[in-house]
């Protein structure tokens, strides 16, 4: 019962058997929270943009969320069998078009356009994922990139030019843990065919300082806000560390982690841009870096927002707390939670089809092999909307004789706006259960 066409931001797209975007997700494409004045995601974007000034950087904040599989994956060097391409992870409109899973989908086009030495892209991105207080199928990213042109420097080695730009960046005094070598032949290789070691080191040094300054800015503002609200506030010193990472479109690559409330949190991914992307974009003489940061998580830390669903709320008790901040960042305050309404847990226990009986049973039944947790997550969210706070596997076992797999998921229903009645939650849970039976072919225990 898929629609034959869907309209997204005023454009019509034909669907096919790949289509898997639920109505609530499609409806989110028009919200553009990163552009909504005084919205915490938008305020966070503004603060980050301030660290990457024009005209070196050009800002792009209105790119369409529907992109091709070429833009989202192929142009970035994702192999054909990369798991990110699966329908269990990504929202497809049809075989060739999808809702971008990251802002990197626009890298190739902007390198090709070659309008500036750097750019920032802020946008909504879409991923099928688990249901809890820090995951939502729609979130926001900022992509940043900076290039230097060999053709513009004598001798064609950009290292000196990059170091000269690095010397112009401010310094900071927070401790940074970075035990990593500049590159590692196995784990994190230099693109030796394209870059000299000193070029890669220079680009990495410029990248790391730029991003450290961005994180310092965010956390300095968060602490100032906390101190304005609570004169007795004692700040924990900010700690950051670099860890090696892998992305198909950068090498070497790193992630930056921030120590916050007892945990190391991964806040961004980055690296030296794969030269092949620049070659394909007809700018083979350019060398540079790229990063991608999740705006929602950063906003949650900055404003102490406990639940990602709040970003989608139109409740003035939420939005009202940020009024005027876009025009005057000194008015930034941490979020003061309005009373939390009670949680209501409901379990759903079911059998998957036996994987031992090859032919038997209804072909629509879910077997253990084709059960994807994200399908269940999405069905729950589709029915319960923003009244579902969390879905978690509570128990699973495989029957020793029949080979059938049993699973129990616990759904936590909790509205951000009111107390749900027990009768209402039961009705919702019955609908969820029925939808799981209809769509996944499971058998309720
Ligand atoms: N696109 C990556 C992600 O979504 C982040 C990234 C961007 C990494 C640019 C490296 C360079 O995880």
TrEMBL record:
GO terms for cellular component: mitochondrial matrix. SUPFAM superfamilies: Anticodon-binding domain of PheRS, Class II aaRS and biotin synthetases. It is an enzyme of class 6 (ligase). Keywords: Aminoacyl-tRNA synthetase, ATP-binding, Ligase, Mitochondrion, Nucleotide-binding, Protein biosynthesis, Transit peptide. Its EC number is 6.1.1.20. Residues 123-337 form the Aminoacyl-transfer RNA synthetases class-II family profile domain. Residues 339-445 form the FDX-ACB domain. The keyword Methyltransferase does not apply. Residues 176-195 are annotated as: Disordered. It comes from the Eukaryota. GO terms for biological process: phenylalanyl-tRNA aminoacylation. GO terms for molecular function: ATP binding; phenylalanine-tRNA ligase activity; tRNA binding. It is found in: Mitochondrion matrix. It catalyses: tRNA(Phe) + L-phenylalanine + ATP = L-phenylalanyl-tRNA(Phe) + AMP + diphosphate + H(+). Belongs to the class-II aminoacyl-tRNA synthetase family. NCBIfam families: pheS_mito. PANTHER family: PHENYLALANINE--TRNA LIGASE, MITOCHONDRIAL, PHENYLALANYL-TRNA SYNTHETASE. Is responsible for the charging of tRNA(Phe) with phenylalanine in mitochondrial translation. This is Phenylalanine--tRNA ligase, mitochondrial. It comes from Lasiosphaeria miniovina.
């Amino acid at each position: 019962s898929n629609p034959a066409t869907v309209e997204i931001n005023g454009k019509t797209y034909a669907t096919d058997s790949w289509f898997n975007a639920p109505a609530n997700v499609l409806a989110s494409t028009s919200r553009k929270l990163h552009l909504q004045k005084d919205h915490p995601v938008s305020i966070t974007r503004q603060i980050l943009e301030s660290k990457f000034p024009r005209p070196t950087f050009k800002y792009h904040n209105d790119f369409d969320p529907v992109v091709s599989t070429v833009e989202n994956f192929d142009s970035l060097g994702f192999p054909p069998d990369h798991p990110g391409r699966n329908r269990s992870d990504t929202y497809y409109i049809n075989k060739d078009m999808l809702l971008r899973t990251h802002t990197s989908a626009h890298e190739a086009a902007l390198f090709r356009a070659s309008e500036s030495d750097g750019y920032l892209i802020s946008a909504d991105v879409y991923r099928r994922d688990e249901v809890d207080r820090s995951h939502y199928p729609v979130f926001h990213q900022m992509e940043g990139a900076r290039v230097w042109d060999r053709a513009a420097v004598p001798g064609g080695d950009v290292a000196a030019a990059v170091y000269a730009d690095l010397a112009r960046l401010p310094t900071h005094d927070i401790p940074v843990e970075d035990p990593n070598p500049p590159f590692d032949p196995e784990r994190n290789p230099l693109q030796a065919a394209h870059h000299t070691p000193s070029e890669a080191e220079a680009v990495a040094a410029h990248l790391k300082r730029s991003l450290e300054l961005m994180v310092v800015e965010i956390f300095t503002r968060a602490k100032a806000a906390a101190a304005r609200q609570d004169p007795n506030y004692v700040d924990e010193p900010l700690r950051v560390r670099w860890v090696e990472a892998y992305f198909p479109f950068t090498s070497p690559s790193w992630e930056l982690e921030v120590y916050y409330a007892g945990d190391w949190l991964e806040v961004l991914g980055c690296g030296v841009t794969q030269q092949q992307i620049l070659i394909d974009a007809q700018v083979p003489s350019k060398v540079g870096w790229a990063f991608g940061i999740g705006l929602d998580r950063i906003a949650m830390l900055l404003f102490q927002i406990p639940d990602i669903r709040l970003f989608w709320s139109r409740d003035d008790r939420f939005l009202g707390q940020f009024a005027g901040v876009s025009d005057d960042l000194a008015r930034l305050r941490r979020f003061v939670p309005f009373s939390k309404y009670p949680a209501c847990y409901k379990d759903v226990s079911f059998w998957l089809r036996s994987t031992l009986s090859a032919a038997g049973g209804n072909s629509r039944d879910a077997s253990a092999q084709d059960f994807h947790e994200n399908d269940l997550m999405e069905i729950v969210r589709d029915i319960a909307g923003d009244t579902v706070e969390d879905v978690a596997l509570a128990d699973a076992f495989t029957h020793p004789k029949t080979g059938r797999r049993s699973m129990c998921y616990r759904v936590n229903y909790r509205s951000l706006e009111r107390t749900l009645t027990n009768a209402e939650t039961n009705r919702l849970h019955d609908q969820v259960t029925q939808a799981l039976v209809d769509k996944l072919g499971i058998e309720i225990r």
